[in-house]
């Protein structure tokens, strides 16, 4: 099987390799619902030592730079309460935490969640956090640009491996909210 983007030696439908995914991601793929079938989510094996963006695109394909998205966990605070959310933005941008995120979460202050919080709350490895398999009660803030991509490369929940799926499939994930200008 060949991936629609990039140059990967090992490409499989995600439902065929649940054992390679962390449990929250495997459960989300197993319970996948919506108009796009789960087998349109592809798992590609990647070397975690090649995770740096420049090395990654050199190793797996220059077309991946514009087709990759980063998922980060953010914390919004208001009146002593903290709420968590995930943001997915093009890899060539940065999350507008103090503007778009803060307003969307109706928070007085917003910041990137601490490493231990992000890992503990998602059950995923740092550097591999993905929008697939996040806690269902979290908002998933999507930059409009990633939902418009024919295919987008995201983390797999682990540092090894990535997932490729149609950008429009992101719209069927729990808590999905599309925002213009989330990544800038």
Describe how the helices and strands are arranged.
Elements: E1 11-13, H1 23-30, E2 42-44, H2 53-60, E3 69-78, E4 81-90, H3 97-104, E5 109-112, H4 115-122, E6 140-143, H5 144-147, E7 152-155, E8 162-165, E9 176-179
Parallel strand pairs: 4-6, 6-9
Antiparallel strand pairs: 1-2, 2-8, 3-4, 3-5, 7-8
Q: What tags apply to this protein structure?
A:
single chain; 184 residues; alpha+beta; YbaK protein; five-stranded mixed beta sheet; four-stranded antiparallel beta sheet; 5 helices; 9 strands; 20% helix; YbaK/aa-tRNA-synt-asso_dom_sf; YbaK/aa-tRNA-synth-assoc-dom
Description:
This is YbaK/EbsC family protein. Residues 63-172 form the YbaK/aminoacyl-tRNA synthetase-associated domain. This protein is an alpha+beta fold and 184 residues long. It has a single domain (11-179), classed as YbaK protein. 20% of the residues lie in helices and 25% in strands. The chain is built from 5 helices and 9 strands; from the N terminus they run βαβαββαβαβαβββ. It has helices spanning 23-30, 53-60, 97-104, 115-122, 144-147, and strands spanning 11-13, 42-44, 69-78, 81-90, 109-112, 140-143, 152-155, 162-165, 176-179. A 5-stranded mixed beta sheet has the order 5-3-4-6-9. The protein is globular. It starts with 10 loop residues before the first strand and ends in a 5-residue tail after the last strand. The mean pLDDT is 96.
């Amino acid at each position: 099987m060949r991936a629609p983007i990039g140059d990967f030696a090992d490409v499989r439908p995600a439902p065929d390799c649940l054992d390679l995914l962390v449990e929250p991601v495997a459960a989300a793929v197993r319970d996948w619902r919506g108009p796009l079938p789960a087998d349109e989510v592809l798992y590609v094996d990647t070397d975690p030592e090649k995770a740096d963006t420049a090395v990654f695109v050199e190793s797996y394909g220059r077309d991946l730079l514009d087709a990759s998205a980063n998922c980060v966990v953010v914390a919004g605070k208001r009146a002593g309460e903290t709420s968590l959310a995930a943001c997915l933005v093009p890899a060539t941008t940065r999350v507008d935490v103090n503007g778009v995120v803060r307003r969307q979460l109706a928070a007085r202050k917003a910041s990137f969640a601490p490493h231990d919080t992000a890992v503990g709350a998602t059950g995923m490895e740092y550097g591999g956090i993905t929008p697939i398999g996040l806690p269902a009660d979290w908002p998933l803030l999507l930059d409009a640009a990633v939902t418009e991509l024919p295919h987008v490369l995201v983390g797999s929940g682990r540092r090894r491996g990535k997932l490729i799926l149609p950008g429009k499939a992101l719209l069927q994930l729990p808590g999905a909210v599309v925002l213009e200008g989330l990544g800038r």
